[in-house]
Amino acid sequence: MKKFLIALFVSQTVIVFSQNDEKTIKEIYDTALSNSKCYSWLDDLSNKIGARLSGSANAQKAVLYTKEQLETLGLDRVYLQELMVPHWVRGEKETAYIKSNKEKINVPICALGSSVATPKNGLTAEVIEVHSIKELAELGLEKIKGKIVFYNRPFETGNIEAMTSYGHAVDQRYAGAREASKFGAVGTIVRSMNFRLDDYPHTGNQGYGDIPKSQYIPTAAISTNGAELLSKKLKENPKLTFYFKQSCEQLEEVKSYNVIGEIKGSAHPENIMVVGGHLDSWDLADGSQDDGAGVVQSMEVLHLFKSINYKPKNTIRAVLFMNEENGGRGGSKYEELSKTNNENHIFALESDSGGFSPRGFNIESDDESFKKILSWKPLFEPYFIHLFEKGHTGSDIEPLTGTHLVKAGLRPDSQRYFDYHHAATDKFDGVNKRELELGAATMATFIYLMDQ
For residue 331, what are the contacts with CB-CB under 8 A and spacing of at least 6? Predict the structure, then answer.
């Protein structure tokens, strides 16, 4: 059969597309919007299994469930990749209040991941408010020792890309306790990573680095409304005290798994293309946006190719990584075994920014590959995909290496992501079915073009 070609002139470069490419891409989107499984898979992950923190019983249930579902797709291979993961547990629900003069006001908090507990009866101390780790160092030991450090740097509202605001604020969450401990602080409270003013504290991992365990101090996130109130009360009474109690604990490591399914390449089976998301989630909610959406979209890519009877030239492998949230062990183990097995990865795509409407991709590649990817923009424009920029692609594929490896990260619309991220609001009802399916179709389209 003759192949008709469409030629476009872009920056004096002739780009040639096959009508068959346009037909295949349309079939991918049509199938995703009419016959996908990703939304029902997410329903099961969220509502039948629930929160999937590494080391938990639910995380293991999610491993078994996704493996079983991949096995129903008629793939060439489905298997588990063993690894050891941290097992941190939250314990009883945290409590906190502001005490100023005779006034006592309860505020919502949640322990940050990997934090130690407070003393059994809780911790009470005066509070010192700072807006950066740099400011902490400027205050020094004399003003900080014996106090609770309150990190209150809000998200910058002027960034159109919400991830930029997150990146500029998250250091106080991750490194805040470690740095405050060096100046004799007894605990830290961190403003939640969120644009919106609400009563939902957002958890997330924090790290003590290489300080001695004897210097570990408890750290918790406070809701944005709680942070605003605490800051206001401190202005009225700098000598007020803050009480919080949490009973979290780091237990012994637990055996867990990455879940992997693959379609063998018809021409170059030795070349591997990965699509993935992380199977674990935080424990405050279902983890539907972070990262249940990315998990089921990655599974859906394989389902779409099987549904349209597309036989890839290269091996396409869906990897559901374990332990992205509080350790990154899944991505590291995958790369370790990849090297052991002398595997040749040529492409990796990650979805870990929620199940919202897709807008494009972040790319990590050489200039020649990036130029080629930019030439595909006309094929994506009918589906409102227009962002192709160089940038960070994903934490789980970050360790992956290869001689000519290209990496990509799906970029959904980010405006509402931090309404849900790491909070009790991250539930199934926050995910729109069509947006989730469009994301899966966009990922499948990118992989199809890379495979071609």
Answer: 321, 324, 395, 396, 397, 398, 399, 400
- Which strands form 268-278's sheet, in the order they lie side by side? 77-89, 249-263, 314-321, 268-278, 344-350, 406-412, 358-364, 387-390
- Single out the catalytic residue among 94, 300, 324, 325: 324
Residue 248: predicted pLDDT: 98
Q: How confident is the model at residue 12 (pLDDT cuts 50, 70, 90)?
A: very low
Kindly report the pTM of this predicted structure.
0.94
CA-CA distance, 338 to 53, in Å (whole number)?
25
pLDDT of residue 9: 41
Q: Look at residue 15 in the predicted model and tell me its pLDDT.
A: 52
Q: Can you tell me the distance from the alpha carbon of 164 to that of 389, in angstroms, rounded to the nearest whole number?
A: 14
Residue 398 annotated in active site: no
Q: List CB contacts of 64: < 8 A, sequence separation 6 or more.
A: none
Mean pLDDT of 348-361: 98
Judge whether residue 160 has pLDDT over 50: yes
Collapsed DSSP state (helix, strand, coil) of residue 104: strand
3 state DSSP class of 47: helix
> Of 3.10.450.50, 3.30.43.10, 3.50.30.30, 2.50.20.10, which CATH number belongs to 91-247?
3.50.30.30
Of 413, 418, 297, the C-alpha closest to 358 is 413
Tell me the H-state helices in 194-292: 224-236
Percent of the chain whose predicted confidence (pLDDT) is above 70: 96
CB 402 within 8 A of CB 344: yes
Domain boundaries, the chain: 5-85+252-451, 91-247
Length of the chain: 452
Name the residue among 406, 435, 275, 449 with its Cα closest to residue 350.
Answer: 275
Q: Return d(Cα 347, Cα 336) in angstroms, integer.
A: 17
* CATH architecture for the domain at 5-85+252-451: 3-Layer(aba) Sandwich (3.40)
Q: What is the pLDDT of residues 390-424, one digit of tens each?
A: 999 999 999 999 888 999 999 999 999 999 999 99
